[in-house]
DNA sequence: TCAATAACCTACCAAAATAGTATGCTATAA
DNA sequence: TTATAGCATACTATTTTGGTAGGTTATTGA
């Protein structure tokens, strides 16, 4: 039941982009140095964020990434799912194809659904802005 | 963010013990056949449940396992944790030793804590009896 | 008391996932 | 036109997951 490092890094990258200099493009190297993450590994992560439309990029000198929206318009769920896929505790809940043969008479399914709902409820109600506001309190 | 097969099997085993014949000891082979799980794999799982005191055993002919308590006295959390360990989404929340160096100024920690709380709240309020009752409705 | 049964214990193993590297190509701005 | 920085693909080492295998110990019924 763990969030991968990719998911954790993704959230930190989004906070970084939102707080460091939201107006200008910031390079991977820049973020990687500040966040102490391998830049090649970060490249993979931010590429997923880019493909999901959560950030936009320009190449070349002075290139880099910036947010496409205001921090209040990103939920934690949007960010984590773009990296981790579904946050379901069992793959039966992911999509129709991954269902196990006994899904129809699975006594535990009801438990997994409740966990799924609870997790979704948390990640879909906390925004990037909430994280930033919360971190400033300390 | 997935529950392992061990965790899922453990829950099914507990339901099996509670519903098949709660008075008598039931052998691993018996459970494994009914639940279509490898008996050697099941042995590992049920051994953890035994060490955690969730079931008790006797050896020899007519030996096997039975519950130590009434189904209403087990929460899903007790069962899953005995197999999976903590259900925390990040290891920082597990125990003091696993903390990452930047835990003290981690902006995301507040998110992980909320997820942790939400998951705990679900698994600690659903009992084994609830699962059994729910499965009978269908 | 002895043979069958079934838990107990330890070790091993293959496949998949995770976390991260390496290399080369393409677009852009100074 | 060159330095910069994103883009794409492939590779690799480590850890976790999901099992197997084999021998030992305890119990019970005949």
Describe what you observe in this structure.
In chain A, 51% of the residues lie in helices and 6% in strands. Chain A is mainly alpha-helical and 138 residues long. Chain A has a single domain (5-137), classed as Arc Repressor Mutant, subunit A, CATH 1.10.10. Chain A has a two-stranded antiparallel sheet with strand order 1-2. In chain A, helix 1 crosses helix 3 (39-51) and helix 2 crosses helix 3 (39-51). The longest helix of chain A is centred in the first third of the chain and has 16 residues, at 5-20. Chain A is elongated and about 60 Å long. In chain A, 33% of the residues are buried. The mean pLDDT of chain A is 94. The structure holds a DNA duplex (30 and 30 nucleotides).
For this entry, give a set of tags.
DNA-binding, homodimer, Arc Repressor Mutant, subunit A, 138 residues, mainly alpha, two-stranded antiparallel ribbon, elongated, 2 strands
Summarize the structure.
2 copies of one chain form a homodimer. The first copy, chain A, is mainly α and about 140 residues long.
Total number of helices of chain A:
6
Order of helices and strands of chain A: HHHEEHHH
Give the overall shape of chain A, derived from the CA principal axes.
elongated
Low-confidence stretches of chain A: none
Could you tell me how far the N terminus lies from the C terminus of chain A, measured between alpha carbons in angstroms? 28 Å
Number of strands of chain A: 2
Let me know the largest β-sheet of chain A.
Answer: 2 strands, antiparallel
Q: Which fold name fills CATH's third level, the topology of chain A?
A: Arc Repressor Mutant, subunit A
Structural class of chain A: mainly alpha
How many distinct domains of chain A? 1
Oligomer: homodimer
Top-tier CATH class of chain A = Mainly Alpha
